[in-house]
């Protein structure tokens, strides 16, 4: 219970820091990278944090700024994996146990769970934030609300 409250306070503090990072004068990519680092360093169950964006007119996602173990999956076709499914569904995808998913692309053996939240610009699904966790079933509605906030803030600078 105490941990739960601590995490909610952390999300509130981090919202302000995310807005502050995104309002700086740096390049878009360096700001997105700073947001990834902020989240990974401060939220214990976030072990890989990255953005994927629609790759031009192609029905595929391209990896953007990220922090965590390097991944081979810099291009993901729509419909493939958790990320590719979110590109088509336009909905959050919370995966408590990645091993229970058929349509899942493994990036690292240590990953137990994942959350992907779509990023909308002018109503269009143009990308997503992807979090991998080494903890089983750690994501709650608070993670979803927080990551939706992050994506709304990011959309403003794109
Ligand atoms: N697991 C994702 C692939 C991206 S990695 O997590 C960085 C998926 O199934 O789409």
What does this structure look like?
- The chain has helices spanning 2-22, 28-42, 81-89, 141-157; strands at 48-54, 60-67, 75-77, 93-95, 113-121, 124-133.
- A hairpin with a 5-residue loop joins β1 (48-54) and β2 (60-67).
- A six-stranded antiparallel β-sheet has the order 3-2-1-6-5-4, sandwiched between helices.
- α1 runs antiparallel to α2 (28-42).
- By secondary structure, the protein is α+β, with helices and mostly antiparallel strands.
- Methionine sulfoxide binds next to α3 and β6.
Question: What order do the strands of the largest sheet run in, or round the barrel if closed?
Answer: 3-2-1-6-5-4
Q: Tally the beta strands.
A: 6
Report the major sheet.
6 strands, antiparallel
Rounded to an integer in angstroms, the radius of gyration calculated over CA atoms is 15 Å
Bound ligands: methionine sulfoxide
Distance between the termini: 38 Å
Helix/sheet category: alpha+beta
Describe the oligomeric state of these chains in a short phrase: single chain
The average pLDDT score comes to 96
Put simply, the count of helices is: 4
Give me some keywords for this one.
6-stranded antiparallel beta sheet; 25% strand; binds methionine sulfoxide
Can you describe this structure in just a few lines?
Helix content is 39%, strand content 25%. The chain has 158 residues and is α+β, with helices and mostly antiparallel strands. It binds methionine sulfoxide.
């Amino acid at each position: 219970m105490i941990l739960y409250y601590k995490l909610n306070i952390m999300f509130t503090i981090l919202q302000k820091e995310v807005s502050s990072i995104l309002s700086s004068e740096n390049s878009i990519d360096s700001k997105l990278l700073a947001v990834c680092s902020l989240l990974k360093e401060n939220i214990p169950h976030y072990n890989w944090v990255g953005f994927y964006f629609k790759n031009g007119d192609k029905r595929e996602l391209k990896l953007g700024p990220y922090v965590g173990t390097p991944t081979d999956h810099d291009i993901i076709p729509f419909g493939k994996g958790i990320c590719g499914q979110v590109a088509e569904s336009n909905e959050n995808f919370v995966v408590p146990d990645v091993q229970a998913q058929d349509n899942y692309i493994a990036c690292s053996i240590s990953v137990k769970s994942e959350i992907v939240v779509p990023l909308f610009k002018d109503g269009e699904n143009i990308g997503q934030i992807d979090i991998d966790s080494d903890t089983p079933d750690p994501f709650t509605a608070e993670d979803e609300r927080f990551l939706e906030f992050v994506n709304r803030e990011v959309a403003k600078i794109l």
